[in-house]
Design goal:
single chain; 393 residues; 8-stranded mixed sheet; 3-stranded antiparallel sheet; 19% strand
């Protein structure tokens, strides 16, 4: 079988899938549920377009644009609370839609898988709001973007850094009406693990899922919670209690390329980068109201244009980029590989989801220390009880 790129480097951006003139490339799941390109050699004409548009094989030279960094939040409290951080995305998206444009982003499908799609009106933007912690399926989105651009439409494409670079590589030229926004990405979790988690929740609650919020703010932005609405029940656990968030944050279910990401860098090809402004309590404490603050990196002239056009609707403060990176190292640093990863994946079909997470997800040193202390106390008490004489009254 011909390979476009080594599997451990492939980010799954779908650029090769979208560019193939003979539809000789299909995206197929591996044992972890991630999609990788597979070439049908009978259809392949050896044009090498797939390799020419691969963003990993054709790394763009890092631009040296001066980046402006801001701490921001949307003044519309309703929009802000429905967002993962400061509610900046929906303002940028509205700006493009008000130009009769199209916005692409990650949304849930009917089974709560995550796919890339597009909307053309403000009412539908809500499906893109809020984080989706699993890798989205790009499908034919890059082709759709090109069709809209070729027809003179404004387009905002949002996604992970690798998805943005995949799109730019696929297009192979600049478009005046294309705007892009990426995120500071921890890494993309396995769609298979997400599916298993959903099955676990449905079996546990004996009801169908109606809605999901990965970053619910009922208890504040800093103590965000996984919240799932069922027909008659509500599940709500913070990031330290929910087994899926534990697996994600401990790096046990990420795509292989995320452990040596080709797109971790200060200077992005996107026009704007959005993230949570972790560390806001130390850098700009007066802005920290626990309702969500965005870190906004303005990377290009188009980014400056967009930011200037939403200024009246946000509260913002310019911030030092290096200081921001100190508390948001995922901008430039890849996730650390978890040694239990394959054991976790190999057992996820055979064990209850919470049990397999408890067994294979490494706990923090403080957590382990607390558990060991409890064990020692219990052992000590048990030993002393056994050594006491049995006195009857």
């Amino acid at each position: 079988m011909k390979e476009i790129i080594e599997k451990n480097k492939c980010c799954g951006c779908h650029a090769c899938f979208n560019i193939c003139p003979k539809d000789a490339i299909s995206m197929q799941e591996d044992e972890k549920g991630f999609l990788y390109p597979v070439i049908n050699e009978e259809k392949c004409i050896n044009c090498n377009m797939c390799r020419k548009v691969c963003p990993v094989l054709n790394k763009k030279e890092e631009m040296k644009n001066k980046i402006k960094a801001y701490a921001c939040y949307n003044r519309n409290l309703t929009e802000r609370l429905k967002s993962s951080s400061g509610g900046i995305f929906c303002l940028i998206a509205k700006e493009i839609i008000n130009r009769n444009g199209v916005v692409f982003g990650a949304a849930f499908d009917e089974n709560f898988g995550v796919k890339h799609t597009y909307v053309e009106n403000v009412k539908e933007l809500k499906q893109f709001m809020g984080s989706k912690y699993t890798q989205s399926k790009i499908g034919t989105s890059y082709k759709d973007v090109k069709d809209f651009l070729d027809n003179g439409k404004y387009v905002l494409f949002t996604g992970t850094p690798c998805q943005i670079e995949g799109l730019k590589s696929y297009l192979r030229k600049d478009y005046e009406k294309l705007y892009t926004q990426d995120i500071i990405c921890h890494g993309v979790p396995s769609p298979k693990v997400w599916k298993k988690y959903l099955e676990y929740q449905k079996n546990r609650n004996k009801e169908e899922i109606k809605d999901i919020s990965f970053r619910n703010k009922d208890h504040g932005w800093i103590s965000f919670r996984m919240k799932i609405l069922f027909n008659t029940k509500i599940y709500s656990k913070d990031l330290g209690q929910d087994p899926y968030m534990q697996a994600f944050l401990k790096n046990i279910c990420l795509r292989e390329s995320c452990y040596n990401c080709s797109f971790k860098k200060k200077n992005r090809v996107s026009d704007i980068t959005l993230a949570d402004y972790w560390g806001i309590d130390k850098v700009h404490p007066k802005m920290n109201d626990n309702k969500g603050i965005s870190l906004v990196l303005v990377n290009s002239n188009k980014g400056i244009e967009l930011f200037n056009n939403i200024k009246e609707k946000i509260s913002y403060k310019e911030t030092d980029l290096d200081q921001a990176i100190k508390y948001n190292p995922a901008l430039i640093e890849s996730a650390k590989h978890c040694i239990n990863e394959m054991e976790f994946i190999n057992n996820i079909d055979n064990m209850e989801f919470d049990k397999v997470v408890k067994k294979y997800v490494p706990q923090s040193p403080a957590y382990k220390k607390a558990i060991n202390i409890v064990k020692k106390v219990v052992k000590y008490v048990f030993k002393n009880q056994r050594s006491k004489p049995n006195v009857q009254k």
